[in-house]
Specification:
Blueprint lengths: L2 H9 L6 E2 L2 E2 L1 H9 L3 H8 L2 H7 E4 L2 E4 L1 H9 L18 E2 L2 E2 L6 E4 L24 E4 L13 E7 L4 E2 L10 E4 L2 H12 L3 E6 L18 H18 E11 L4 H12 L4 E8 L13 E8 L10 E2 L1 H17 L3 H18 L12 E3 L2 E5 L34 H9 L3 E2 L9 E5 L4 E2 L4 E3 L2 H12 L10 H11 L5 E4 L6 H13 L4 E6 L3 H12 L6 E6 L3 H10 L3 H13 L8 H10 L5 H11 L21 H11 L3
Parallel strand pairs: 11-24, 11-25, 12-13, 12-23, 14-22, 23-24
Antiparallel strand pairs: 1-2, 3-4, 5-6, 7-8, 9-10, 9-25, 13-15, 14-15, 16-21, 17-18, 18-20, 19-20
Helix pairs in contact: 2-5, 6-7, 7-8, 9-10, 13-14
C-alpha cells in the first residue's frame, strides 16, 4: 500500500475526517494548520505517519504541518482523483479541474478595501484585506436554497407604492448576493431568460467598480464559474449571454466559457474600442471585449435588424423633400453630395448604407446587382418598355426568378436603362435595409459617464456601460416579449437600454437586475425611475441574516463596536452553529486582537449557509417576517 492509500486508511477511522468513503480534505487541512490534538493523536499512532510528517528534536516529535498540508492537497489524495484524466485539457485551480471542483466563492462586495484607522482614500490603492471566501463542498448545506424575500416596493416614474402581487410580466430589481439571488431566481425563471448581459469585476486591482476587483486568479475564475453555471440554467434553449471583460482575464474567461457552455456554442466577440490610453508602458490598450455564448447555437436565428444608419439618410432625405417638394433630381443630387461629404468628415458612420443615394418619387433606393455570381442563374426574356426589344442578360443569368422581377416592376421598383442595352435592376428601398451585429464597436466610454452624470445631475458612477452598445445587443438577440437579466447591475445601464428599445420598437421586453451594493437605492433605482416613462418595476431584497452581521462587521470602526456585534451574534439563535470553544477563544482575545484580525475572525465563524433566511423557514417566528413579505414571497415562488 503506498503512502497515499495508507494515510487515507488511517484517517478513515475517524468520521470527522471521513464518512461513507468520502474524505473531508478541507477539514483535515484546517485541523493540520491548527495542530488539532484529535488529528495528531491519529498520526502519532502510526509509525509510517511519524516517519514522514514528524521531526525528532531532542526527545520531542515536531509536526511538519506545511508538509502534511501539501501532501493532503495533492490530487492523488483526493477521493475523486483526476489522475485518470491525464490527457484532459482545462482550467485548473489548486491542481483540480475548475469546472469539476466543488468550491464556491462568495464575494463580500462592500468596497475594494476596508479602511484602517487613519488611512486616507488614496491609500486604498494598496492591497488590503478582502472579504472574499471560498467555501468547500462539505461546508455547503443550505447555501443555494431559495431565500425569503422582503422589503417589497413598486416604483413608477414619480413615486413609490405598495406591492400587491408579483408576476412574470414585472420588471424587477433585486438586492442581495448575486450568486444566491441567481439560485433563488432559478426556482421561477429556469429556462425563461432570453438574454443575460453582465459586466463583472475585471480582476484588475482597481477601485473603480465598487466590487472587490482584485481576486487571486483562481478565486476569480471560481467566482465566475459559480455564477455562469447557474446562469446557463436560466437561459431559454435559444438564449444567449454577453459578458464584458478586458485583457486581464479575457483569455481565461473564454476557456472557462468553452467548458461551461461548450466550445460549439461560442457565438463570437465584440471588440469595443473605448478611450485612448495615453499612459501605456508598452502597448496602448484602447479596447475591451464582449464575449457571447449561447445555450444551444443551433437554435439561434440569423441576427438581422432594420438598419439604424439608414435612418440618418432618411432624416436628411425628408429635410430635402420639404425643400424641393417633388423635384427628385435636385433631391438626389444634394443627397448624394451630402453622403459623400459625411463619408469624408466621419460626422456619421454610414458604412454599409452609403450606396442608398438614388431618389425617385417613392423615396430613397439603390439599384441592386441583377447578375448571378456563377453559372446557373435564371434565364428569361425581359422586354424593354420603350424599345420593345429584349434587354441584355447577365453572363450567368439573373439572380432572381421572373416572378420576382415582374412583381417589382408592378410596384414601380425596377430601374430601366434608356434602351435594351442596359440590364434592368430591381430597386432596393432604404426602408428594407438591414444590418448585422458587427464584431467591432467604437464609443468613448467617457460619453456614457457624462450621459449618466447629466441624467442624474452629478457624477454618481464611474465607467457605466454604453447604452448604445447594450441597445444593439438587445435588439439583435431578443424579441418583443423576452426577459433580459443583468446580475452585475451596477448603475442600471441594462434597464435603461431595454426601456429605450421598448420605446423605439413598441415592444414589451422585461428586465431583471440583481445588485448587492447599497448604491442600488441611490443610483440604480433612481436612474431607472428617470427613464421609466409609463412603465414600472418592483423591488425586493433577499432577507438577510448573517449577511446583516457581515455588513455591520465590515462597517465597524472600533473594537467597542465589534464587541457589541459579537455579543449580538452570541445571543442570536445562529450562534448554535458556533462551538463554545470558538466563542471562548474570541472572548479571550477580543481585547488583544487587531481590529482587522477580529473582523476577519468574526466573518469566518458565521455560517454562510445562513447569510439569508431560507424561504422554507419563512414562517418561523424567529425570523420576524411580516405577513406581507410571507405572502409575496410565496406568490413569487409559486409562479410558473
Amino acid at each position: 500500500m503506498n503512502l497515499f492509500e495508507h494515510i487515507k486508511s488511517l484517517l478513515s477511522q475517524n468520521e470527522k475526517y471521513c464518512k461513507d468513503g468520502k474524505l473531508f480534505k478541507n477539514v483535515i487541512v484546517e485541523d493540520a494548520l491548527k495542530v488539532e490534538q484529535e488529528l495528531l493523536s491519529i498520526l502519532l499512532s502510526d509509525d509510517k505517519a511519524i516517519q514522514h510528517f514528524f521531526t525528532e528534536v531532542g526527545k520531542v516529535l515536531v509536526f511538519d504541518k506545511i508538509k502534511f498540508q501539501k501532501f493532503v492537497s495533492n490530487k492523488q489524495f483526493l477521493p475523486d482523483s483526476y489522475t485518470s484524466f491525464k490527457n484532459k485539457i482545462g482550467l485548473t485551480a489548486n491542481e483540480e479541474y475548475l469546472t469539476e471542483a466543488k468550491e464556491v466563492v462568495l464575494s463580500w462586495a462592500y468596497k475594494d478595501c476596508i479602511l484602517e484607522g487613519g488611512q486616507s482614500k488614496d491609500d486604498q490603492k494598496r492591497k488590503e484585506i478582502f472579504w472574499n471566501e471560498t467555501l468547500a463542498p462539505d461546508e455547503i448545506d443550505r447555501l443555494f436554497d431559495p431565500k425569503a424575500l422582503s422589503n417589497f416596493k413598486k416604483f413608477d416614474a414619480d413615486s413609490e407604492h405598495n406591492v400587491e402581487n408579483i408576476s412574470l410580466e414585472d420588471n424587477l430589481i433585486i438586492k442581495g448576493n448575486n450568486l444566491l439571488t441567481l439560485h433563488s431566481l432559478k426556482k421561477v425563471y429556469q429556462g425563461k431568460i432570453k438574454l443575460i448581459y453582465i459586466d463583472p469585476p475585471y480582476n484588475t486591482g482597481k477601485d473603480s467598480f465598487l466590487y472587490n476587483d482584485s481576486f487571486n486568479h483562481s478565486s476569480w475564475l471560481t467566482f465566475m464559474k459559480n455564477r455562469l453555471m447557474v446562469a446557463k440554467d436560466l437561459l431559454t434553449n435559444d438564449g444567449v449571454i454577453f459578458i464584458s471583460i478586458d485583457i486581464n482575464e479575457q483569455a481565461y474567461l473564454k476557456v472557462l466559457c468553452n467548458e461551461i457552455f461548450k466550445r460549439d456554442n461560442f457565438v463570437g466577440e465584440i471588440i469595443w474600442e473605448t478611450a485612448t490610453d495615453n499612459n501605456a508602458t508598452q502597448i496602448s490598450m484602447e479596447h475591451e471585449y464582449v464575449l457571447c455564448y449561447s445555450k444551444n447555437k443551433s437554435n439561434l436565428p440569423k441576427w438581422k435588424i432594420k438598419s439604424e444608419k439608414a435612418n440618418i439618410i432618411l432624416d436628411k432625405y425628408n429635410l430635402l423633400k420639404k425643400k424641393y417638394k417633388t423635384d427628385t433630381v435636385s433631391i438626389e443630387k444634394e443627397l448624394r453630395g451630402w453622403i459623400n461629404s459625411v463619408k469624408k468628415s466621419n460626422e456619421y458612420d454610414l458604412s454599409g448604407v452609403s450606396h442608398y443615394s438614388y431618389v425617385d418619387e417613392k423615396g430613397v433606393f439603390y439599384p441592386g446587382n441583377s447578375a448571378n455570381t456563377k453559372q446557373g442563374g435564371y434565364t428569361f426574356d425581359i422586354i424593354h418598355p420603350t424599345t420593345k426589344k429584349v434587354c441584355n442578360k447577365p453572363n450567368f443569368g439573373y439572380r432572381w426568378p421572373e416572378e420576382t422581377f415582374w412583381n417589382a416592376d408592378k410596384n414601380g421598383d425596377v430601374l430601366w436603362g434608356k434602351d435594351e442595352n442596359t440590364i434592368p435592376k430591381i430597386k432596393k428601398r432604404i426602408d428594407t435595409a438591414t444590418e448585422l451585429l458587427k464584431g467591432y464597436f467604437y464609443e468613448d466610454n467617457r460619453k456614457s459617464t457624462n450621459a449618466l452624470a447629466s441624467l442624474m445631475g452629478k457624477k454618481v458612477f464611474s465607467n457605466p456601460k454604453s447604452i448604445n452598445l447594450l441597445k444593439k445587443i438587445i435588439k439583435f438577440s431578443t424579441s418583443e416579449n423576452d426577459i433580459v437579466l443583468d446580475f452585475f447591475a451596477g448603475s442600471g445601464s441594462t434597464a435603461q437600454a431595454l426601456l429605450e428599445v421598448n420605446s423605439e420598437l413598441s415592444s414589451n421586453r422585461k428586465f431583471i437586475l440583481c445588485e448587492q451594493m447599497d448604491y442600488v437605492h441611490t443610483v440604480t433605482i433612481s436612474r431607472v425611475q428617470k427613464v421609466l416613462n409609463d412603465n414600472h418595476f418592483k423591488y425586493f431584497e433577499l432577507t438577510t441574516k448573517n449577511e446583516s452581521y457581515i455588513s455591520q462587521i465590515t462597517s465597524a470602526v472600533s473594537l467597542n463596536e465589534l464587541k457589541k456585534i459579537t455579543d449580538n451574534i452570541f445571543n442570536d439563535f445562529i450562534s448554535v452553529y458556533i462551538t463554545e470553544e470558538i466563542k471562548s477563544n474570541i472572548k479571550e482575545s477580543i481585547n488583544l486582537a487587531n481590529i482587522q484580525v477580529l473582523k476577519s475572525l468574526l466573518i469566518e465563524i458565521l455560517d454562510k449557509n445562513w447569510l439569508y433566511v431560507p424561504f422554507s423557514e419563512i414562517k418561523d417566528e424567529t425570523h420576524l417576517m411580516d405577513e406581507n413579505s410571507i405572502k409575496l414571497s410565496t406568490n413569487f415562488y409559486s409562479q410558473r
